[in-house]
Amino acid sequence: MINNIRPVSRKYNLLLICCFACFVHSCAQTKKIPLNKYGLEVVSDIKLYRQLVRSGKVPGLFPIAQLPALKTELRYAGTNNFMGKILYKEGAAAYLISPAANALRKVVYELKEKGLGLLVWDAYRPYSTTEEIWQEVRDERYAANPTKGSGHNRGISIDCTLYDLQTGTALEMPTDFDDFSEKAHHSFTALSATVLKNRKTLLDVMEKYGFKALSTEWWHYSFPNTGHFPLLNIPFKALR
Ligand SMILES: [Zn+2]
């Protein structure tokens, strides 16, 4: 009988009203991403970054060193880089935003089956570091122009090579990291059969899971920016 149906309790109604009010409040509280001097959206404030992640507007940065068969040697966290100086002052770790990290998870699982691992030289890079690098390398073939920003600043680009899981040794590749010469181009073929094979192994597995190669740097791969992900300038220490 209809009379037996209990009316929705007053307590429950109040709870619904509170939840709705909180949702409206949090939407209203999520500020717009500020534009920098070049008119680019750059998220520099950790509180704003967290709000954007919570509201689903920006995918969160995922620490990829947690993945199996992956090790990091962040070149900008030390002096073994083309600038010969430390660019990541403290607390640097390798991060990618979640869609790219999910694709990378598939990459490393497939590599592991072949007895290989992924050695990561760089991944997410704060926008301010891109500005610093541009001061030294004003060549868009090799460095990102701050007027556009970089896939690294969006957490969708990765610089990596392969290593042998048994020995831990890096596989022979055309050049070292950040070798700004033609030898680093994918079109360069005056290389040994082993090196050509190694470069192709990396290319094939990265492309299989959606990453795109960069013609001038065999080590650089980017996940498509389908979500129009904003540039990030969050310091590493704030992410920890
Ligand atoms: Zn790169």
Task: Explain briefly what this protein structure is.
With 240 residues, the protein is α/β, with parallel strands linked by helices.
Descriptive overview:
With 240 residues, the chain is an alpha/beta fold. It has a single domain (34-239), classed as Muramoyl-pentapeptide Carboxypeptidase, domain 2 (2-Layer Sandwich), CATH 3.30.1380.10. It contains six helices and nine strands; from the N terminus they run H-E-H-E-E-E-H-E-H-E-H-E-E-E-H. The chain has helices at 10-29, 46-54, 98-113, 127-136, 193-208, 236-239; strands at residues 42-43, 61-63, 70-72, 95-97, 116-122, 157-164, 212-214, 217-222, 231-232. Strands 3-5-6-8-7 form a five-stranded mixed β-sheet, with helices on one face. A two-stranded parallel sheet has the order 1-9. Strand 7 and strand 8 (217-222) form a beta hairpin. The model is unreliable at 1-8 and 12-28 (pLDDT under 50). Zinc ion binds at residues 122, 152, 157, 159, 220.
**Count of distinct strands:** 9
Query: How does the major sheet shape up?
Result: 5 strands, mixed
Can you give the mean pLDDT? Answer: 89
Number of domains: 1
User: What sort of overall outline do the alpha carbons produce when their principal axes are compared?
Assistant: globular
Beta-strand share of residues = 15-25%
Helix content: 25-40%
Q: How far from one another are the termini?
A: 58 Å
Bound molecules: zinc ion
What Rg is obtained from the alpha carbons, in whole angstroms?
A: 22 Å
Set out the fold topology:
Elements: H1 10-29, E1 42-43, H2 46-54, E2 61-63, E3 70-72, E4 95-97, H3 98-113, E5 116-122, H4 127-136, E6 157-164, H5 193-208, E7 212-214, E8 217-222, E9 231-232, H6 236-239
Parallel strand pairs: 1-9, 3-5
Antiparallel strand pairs: 2-4, 5-6, 6-8, 7-8
Bound molecules: zinc ion.
